[in-house]
Amino acid sequence: MSEDKRMKVYLKGLKKKKIKGIELIKRDEKIELWEERPNCGLFILHYSEGSEDDYHVLRSHLLQYGPLSSLIILSGINYGYACYESLESAAIAYETINNSYPILPFSPKPHPFTVLYTPIQHNLQLGKDSICYENVPVPGLIIEKDFISAEYEQLLVEELDKLPWNPLANRRVQHFGFDFIYGANSINPETPSSGFPAWINPLLTDLQLKFGISYDQLTVNDYQPGDSIPPHIDSHSPFEEILACISILGPISMCFRNTDGREFNQFIPPRSMLAMTDEARYVWKHSIQQRRHDIVNGNLVHRKRRISLTFRKIRIGPCRCKYPEFCDRDRYEEGSN
């Protein structure tokens, strides 16, 4: 077969693939009428596995045409979305890619891709459930970025990894001060475990200065990408009101859900401190959903290994909170930040 014929066959196959891709996008994006008109948004028919490596390969190529304000490709979905900061950049990308069919080193093997203009003012469905925000309206929820330094973060990781991790079904844990009793979502105050190591003291001091609390129980969780925890409220009876969680290494999104149906995904960057007080502590369930990515400000953030250090104060006496209808409602469910 001549080179000219081979190219015609190749382009014919690519055209058929593009037609199928358009039908996929129309179905998943709930598009009824679609007229391609120049705008900053592009659907990308990449046909890759949608891995983190594929994301970086595609991003590197698309940036040749101009700055991006958003890029989303997800594992197992053959199309993605890109938004350029200017119409000019989007037009250059559209014309260049669709005229040259660049072949990129996608997984599982190198292949070309094509792009389409999105409908004007389209409500993107791709990754909709993964969108999270930097400040969500949950009463009593406090988040403080850069609560610790990168140097102290590294020290914590090194010291924790010197100690044995206890495996659970979906993560590994360590406990200090008192052992956490899973199943009862509680502790036994009569049997304290090891004390706090010296390298935890700076955190204890900073948290005491901030909240006026001398924390005496610490649960450390080690998560890998895709690990999750079910929706729960930390038991009222064993612990005082303010729970403080230091998040290190990878970013994460925590879902907060109210019984009235409201639900928000709070983005938690590395080295930040998240505290739950009042309603956030006693009323809203929190969870980590099982996925390997989050979408923040229109951009895909891949999850990495994450360690959380959750500090609690043991309650002496019965709970006197103003939310008795929620007291210990999840006492027998496994869960921890």
From TrEMBL:
Domain Fe2OG dioxygenase: 214-315
Domain of life: Eukaryota
One family name in Pfam for this protein: 2OG-FeII_Oxy_2
GO molecular function term, any single one: oxidoreductase activity
Biological process according to GO: demethylation
Protein's name in the database: Fe2OG dioxygenase domain-containing protein
